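Support request from a user on the community tier.

User writes: "When I paste my structure tokens into the form, the page sometimes reloads and wipes my input. The last time it worked, I copied everything first. Here is what I submitted, just in case something in the input itself triggers the reload:"
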């Protein structure tokens, strides 16, 4: 997010100042808020209810990070949702709903890999 919002990712733009610091602050605040809710409340509750429940909640979070999340990668919070899906998917691997946990892990990995690809592309474009 810092590369996109603060440095920019358009090589033909000669602007050397901060590109969009307000969007950066809003996206960081949104990501931190989502992380506090997910990792402070949702993940511990699902984990305490056992691996079967963790697998189901992991799949729900992974779908949320994947389906609408791909469109909002520039805000950063889909990475937090995907991270929670991965955390619960790993817990769910030890239960009876192992296929759901595996599906959740795969689906949560997609936004993270796509985001990493955009980040690398943005950095490369900025440096060239």
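"...and here is what came back when it finally went through:"
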């Amino acid at each position: 997010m810092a590369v996109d919002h603060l440095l920019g990712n358009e090589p033909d733009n000669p602007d050397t100042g901060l590109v969009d610091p307000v969007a950066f602050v809003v996206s960081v605040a949104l990501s931190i808020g989502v992380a506090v809710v997910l990792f402070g409340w949702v993940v511990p509750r699902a984990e305490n209810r056992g691996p079967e429940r963790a697998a189901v909640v992991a799949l729900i979070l992974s779908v949320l990070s994947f389906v609408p999340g791909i469109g909002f990668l520039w805000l950063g919070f889909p990475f937090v949702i995907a991270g929670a899906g991965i955390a619960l998917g790993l817990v769910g691997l030890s239960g009876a709903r192992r296929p759901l946990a595996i599906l959740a892990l795969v689906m949560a990995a997609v936004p993270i890999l796509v985001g990493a690809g955009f980040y690398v592309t943005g950095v490369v474009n900025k440096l060239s």
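Agent notes: The reload is a front-end session timeout and is unrelated to the input. Residues 8 and 15 are 9 Å apart (CA to CA). The chain has a mean pLDDT of 83. Escalated to web team.
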